[in-house]
Amino acid sequence: MFRTHTCGALRIENKGQQVTLAGWVQKARKLGGMTFIDLRDRYGITQLVVEADAPADLVETATSLGREFVIQACGEVVERQAKNPKMPTGDIEIKVSAINILNKSVTPPFTIEEESDGGEDLRMKYRYLDLRRGPLQRALALRHKVAHEVRNYLDAKGFMEIETPYLIKSTPEGARDFVVPSRMNPGQFYALPQSPQTFKQLLMVAGYDRYFQIVRCFRDEDLRADRQPEFTQIDCEMSFVEQEDVLNTFEGMMRQMFKNALGVDIPGPLPRMSWYDAMDNYGSDKPDVRFGMKIHEITSLVQGCGFSVFDSAPYVGAIAVPGGAEYTRKQIDELTEWVKRPQVGAKGLVYVRCNADGSVKSSVDKFYTPEQLKAVADACEAQAGDLLLVLCGEKRKTQTQLGVLRIEMGNRLGLRDPKVFAPLWIVDFPLLEWDDETQRFYAMHHPFTAPKPEHEKWFYSNAKEDLERVCANAYDFVLNGSELGGGSIRIHNADMQKRMFEVLGIGPEEAELKFGFIINAFKFGAPPHGGLAFGFDRVCALMGGQDTIRDYIAFPKNNQGRDVMIDSPSEIDASQLEELQIALNPKAE
Ligand code: ASP
User: Fold this and answer.
1) How far apart are CA 240 and CA 158, in angstroms?
2) 237: CA distance to ligand 1 center in Å?
3) Do residue 517 and residue 542 come from a single domain?
4) Which helix (H) or strand (E) is 432 found in, with range?
5) What atom of ligand 1 comes closest to residue 449's alpha carbon?
6) What is the residue range of 313's domain?
């Protein structure tokens, strides 16, 4: 047998056994004639000892070992003198009788331990070495476990896993497409799917009433900690369902995943919050409900008192920061600068200190009596000792700014414990979103989302105010301030789909060209259907208590969308370009 055990398996119960292990030398050190070797594989680390009185050739081999050599070692399991309670194998060590060097290693560019001394760029370049480290191995193990739970759960519920193509025609989900030239069809391009949206709907038309797929999606967007150009979705669709059926099914999936992969109970049923309440109270469509500090509208309380900034604002809102009355002038000035950063975009910040003795002090004292300020504090449910932070401006924009400020204060006050999980559904999204710049409506979710049946009358109206009122049976699964998934009940009728494209300013010819296949399919008895997709990488990262999804992807790209390990993207041969009949713009060369 190549190995009798892994490097994470042996315990004191194995004392006296002859074993053979294989793995990587994490560390080898000499101590008074003895050589200690930490042998690692993905299951753990076991300490090997070569005694001072071992045969000379064995001592010599042990001495020659460098970091990351691959060896096979035989010996007896013995009880350790100095036990290491931090290691699962810490009660034992192997008294080595033979070492076989399976492969040498050049000195690795960084330490391959729990904490590495290598910077991000270096670790990305040698990703296969970084992947030997415990934190990454645990991340990928969690990912595997979660995927396994998804498949178990959905299989038990009668879902079929069906693959859909990667070389497709553009699926609009709001991002830019990656495109692939077609050699056999010169001058024409495939798009890589932003999601399998149209295919899963066509599968519903085809009668596969419960579909899922753990699937790669591609979006050419600017990258952030929780975004990669290629990422994985748990993509699902169901026929003959209402919103409630979808929510209940996937709430159950989430519960099983958390329970079986993480040992965490998610009590149910999950709270549901309308998009409007989320925006009004949390200034975000992905509220972190682990803490309060809700947004309160105080427009009517502060207008008409001579403070022109508030008087001319369509909306004034505030949050009460617990314990904030203690903040120094300097701290408040710093916060004022913070909200003025372009990422937040507020013009200024007004504060009201609710002192412990019941008095109030504010930056706009000269316009308001203490009674008026107390009424504002009461409206914001402020306690003695709190600090009110007030912003004003256009309603949704100001709420969003307050939402960003609320999250920042939550972070500063340590209210966002990654071990606490507070999931909820956001429901009743508006169907459409007006964009002032392009003077047109965009689908808030995507163009295949159906209006709520009771709002159809507005959907067919041409008045902007009517269209703005239309809500969809669209839903997002939100956890700790992150959107982990979202979906909707779909349009399943060709005429309604045509109307949707019309509302979105997509003319009949363009709609036919881009979406003729789906409009046509809807003419052949499309069942009512709906579904959703979860961002699998993000789900795993959040379960692992991390903000960045990179550690949960074996071979991710960096912030410039590059894989620095294989050095991609890269130029291609002139002959390949010629075959594709593609000429590069001289500027790009
Ligand atoms: N395709 C959608 C997305 O990627 C999810 C869905 O509507 O099912 O966001």
Assistant:
1) 14
2) 10
3) no
4) strand 432-435
5) 7
6) 291-412
118, part of any domain: no
Q: Whose CA is closest to atom 7 on ligand 1?
A: 487
Which of 177, 213, 247, 446 for mutating ligand 1's site (highest number of atoms within 8 Å of CB)? 446
CATH number, position 39: 2.40.50.140
Q: What is the CA radius of gyration of the chain?
A: 30
Do residues 489 and 406 share a domain? Answer: no
Q: Is residue 4 part of a domain?
A: no
Helix axes of 275-282 and 395-412: crossing angle, nearest 10 degrees: 60
Q: How many domains does the chain have?
A: 4
Looking at the structure, do residues 222 and 201 belong to the same domain, yes or no? Answer: yes
Separation of 410 CA from ligand 1 center, angstroms? 30
Residue 540 lies in a domain: yes
152 plus 99 within the same structural domain: no
192-203 pLDDT per residue, tens? 999 999 999 999
Sign of the CA dihedral with 363 first, then 364, 370, and 376 last: negative
What are the pLDDT digits (tens) for 546-575? 888 999 999 999 989 999 999 999 999 999
Give the residues surrounding ligand 1 with Cβ less than 6 Å away. 173, 195, 197, 486-488, 531-533
CB 29 within 8 A of CB 62: no
- Rounded to the nearest angstrom, the distance between the alpha carbon of 485 and the centre of ligand 1 is 8
Q: Among residues 457, 455, 460, 318, which one has the least CA distance to residue 399? A: 318
Ligand 1 mutation target, pool 241, 427, 445, 476, most atoms within 8 A of CB: 445
Residue 271 placed within a domain? no
Give 65-108 pLDDT, tens digit per residue: 999 999 999 999 999 999 999 999 999 999 999 999 999 999 99
